[in-house]
């Protein structure tokens, strides 16, 4: 999910590893993200919430509609990870980028947009023509590889934050986040997860 331009302009930190290098830098996390996506996304969000001390909000607050924009019981993350896996992964990425100040590289953006556009193209084309099963499998493989890369890249950053300590998001980034995101950050309980 793309981040608004005003937020992107204020992200200045760099990822420890690029999306393209992530499978080689963290092969176990890459495989975990590829082959056990629901568990990987769930575990990563719980770790992010423990580090930031923020309350659990569905999809990291990316879709603040009604009760989805309010803090919920952390067990709801199980449902999110199983039913909205890609959005949950995007929520994790959004949290890593905005809380730890990480901007995408041009290569990261190219990979993410290419996979997204190919998937959309094949889905739309299948409404009008018969798409060979091999093409669908190839697109699914591209999606799984990209998910694994995203998970591994984020896992490397989370491990680094665990080592160096979490200082909170920069004031500049917080200032350009939507109000509901600012509220999530303000509800954080430093040193421990919010209920």
How would you describe the overall organization of this protein?
The protein is mostly helical and 195 residues long. The chain is built from 10 helices and no strands. The chain has helices at residues 5-8, 22-25, 27-35, 37-52, 76-83, 85-100, 106-125, 133-164, 171-176, 179-186. Helix 3 (27-35) packs across helix 8 (133-164), helix 4 crosses helix 5 and helix 4 (37-52) packs parallel to helix 8 (133-164). The radius of gyration is 17 Å and the shape is globular. The chain starts with a helix and ends in a 9-residue tail after the last helix. The model has no long low-confidence stretch (mean pLDDT 90).
Mean pLDDT, to the nearest integer, reads: 90
The amount of beta strand, in percent, is under 5%
Helix % is 55-70%
Radius of gyration: 17 Å
Total strands: 0
Amino-to-carboxy terminus distance = 26 Å
- Helix count, per DSSP? 10
Overall 3D form: globular
Residue runs with pLDDT of under 50 for 5 or more positions = none
Q: Mind describing the biggest β-sheet? A: none
Elements, N to C (H/E): HHHHHHHHHH
Structural class: mainly alpha
Q: Topology, pairings included?
A:
Layout: H1 5-8, H2 22-25, H3 27-35, H4 37-52, H5 76-83, H6 85-100, H7 106-125, H8 133-164, H9 171-176, H10 179-186
Helix pairs in contact: 3-4, 3-8, 4-5, 4-6, 4-8, 5-6, 6-8, 7-8
Summarize this structure as a short list of keywords or feature phrases.
0% strand, single chain, 195 residues
What's a quick, concise take on this entry?
By secondary structure, the chain is mainly alpha-helical.
């Amino acid at each position: 999910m793309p981040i608004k331009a005003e937020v992107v302009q204020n992200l200045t930190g760099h990822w420890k590893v690029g999306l393209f290098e992530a499978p080689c830098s963290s092969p176990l996390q890459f495989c975990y993200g590829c082959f056990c996506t629901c568990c990987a996304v769930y575990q990563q969000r719980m770790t992010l919430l423990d580090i930031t001390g923020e309350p659990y909000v569905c999809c990291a607050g990316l879709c603040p509609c009604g009760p989805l924009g309010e803090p919920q019981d952390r067990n709801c993350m199980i449902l999110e990870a199983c039913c909205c896996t890609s959005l949950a992964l995007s929520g994790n990425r959004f949290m890593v980028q905005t809380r730890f100040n990480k901007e995408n590289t041009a290569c990261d953006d190219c990979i993410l947009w290419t996979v997204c556009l190919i998937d959309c193209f094949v889905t739309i084309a299948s409404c009008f023509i018969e798409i060979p099963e091999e093409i669908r499998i190839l697109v699914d493989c591209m999606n799984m590889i990209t998910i694994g890369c995203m998970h591994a890249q984020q896992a490397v950053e989370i491990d680094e934050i665990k080592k160096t300590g979490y200082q909170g998001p920069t004031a500049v980034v917080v200032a350009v986040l939507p109000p509901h995101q600012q509220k999530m950050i303000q509800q954080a309980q430093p040193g421990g997860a919010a209920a």
